[in-house]
Every structure is written in C-alpha cells, then in structure tokens.
Design brief:
Elements: E1 7-8, E2 17-18, E3 25-27, E4 30-32, H1 35-38
Antiparallel strand pairs: 1-2, 3-4
Bound molecules: zinc ion (3 copies).
C-alpha cells in the first residue's frame, strides 16, 4: 500500500495539500499547489480552489 506524503501548500493563506513529485510546484525547496501560489500571487489571482482565500 502506497502512502503519499502530502504537505500543505507553502502559501500561508492557502489550505491545499500537495504531493511533492506528483503535481506540486516546487520553488526554493517549498511546495505549492499552483504556480500562482509559488509566485506569491503577483496578479492577485488565487489558486482557484474552493475554500482558499489566497
Ligand atoms: Zn489552494
Ligand atoms: Zn496553494
Ligand atoms: Zn496561494
């Protein structure tokens, strides 16, 4: 049985869980759910996931 190790998106206001190596965006050793989060929401766009306030 495979247990994927999930970590929370490194964006503070984001509540998404991401799986390193399986779709997560890695930047500076941290993992983000989307490029928008990884780049600090330069355009004010959120990650687009329901329930996230980033
Ligand atoms: Zn999110
Ligand atoms: Zn995120
Ligand atoms: Zn975010």
């Amino acid at each position: 049985m495979t247990t994927a190790t999930q970590v929370k998106c490194a964006c503070e206001s984001c509540h998404c869980m991401v799986t390193p190596g399986a779709g997560a965006i890695e930047k500076d050793g941290k993992y983000y759910c989307t490029e928008a989060c990884a780049e600090g929401h330069p355009n004010g766009r959120g990650c687009g996931h329901p329930g996230c306030e980033c």
